[in-house]
Every structure is written in structure tokens, then in C-alpha cells.
């Protein structure tokens, strides 16, 4: 029984620590969009889109990124790299363009390596 009390008091401490951290706030989300865009621009688009789950502040931030980085190898890291996975990558690129504010795009990078022939296309506007 005493072990449970120790565990419970530890849990209470952790919870109160969590509340204390929450009261300190999320400093990164307080940054202006242009700085957050610079941070997200250094990521692959898959990772940039995944940041949308962090908070409501980040939910649609990726849709206004001025730099789009698509990398097949990064996309396939958690897959077997089959032809079906490469098709999913192309569908992902299509979906990003459907949901993205294209008028804001300044740089577009596409890294697509199939059959060891590297195609690197970089378009600047």
C-alpha cells in the first residue's frame, strides 16, 4: 500500500510540474509567422505538415509557407519504399498543393530519386 502512495505522490508532483510548465506558455508559438516560416522552411514538407498537430496556432501554418521542400527519401524513411509508397508521395505532393496558398510560394524543391537517378529540381520565383 505504501508503494502506491509513493507512486501517487510522484504522479501528483509530475502533474503539478506539467501545470507549471503550461503556465509558462509556449514561447515558440508566440513568434511571428515569418520566423516560424523560416524554421519550417528548413524541414521537409512532410515534417512541416506534421507540425500542424502541435497546437491550433500551428494547425494551418504550413499552408502559407513560402518554401516547399519535398524529398522522396525522407518521405519513404518509415516505409518499405515500394512503388505504392512512391505513389503515396506523389499524392501527398498533390494534396499539399490543393491546401496550400500557392500565391505565397517563393521556392520549390523536389528531390525524387527513383532507380538511383537523382532528379533535383529547384524553382525560384
Automatic annotation (TrEMBL):
- Boundaries of each F-box domain copy? 25-61
- Residues covered by region (Disordered): 1-30
Record's protein name: F-box domain-containing protein
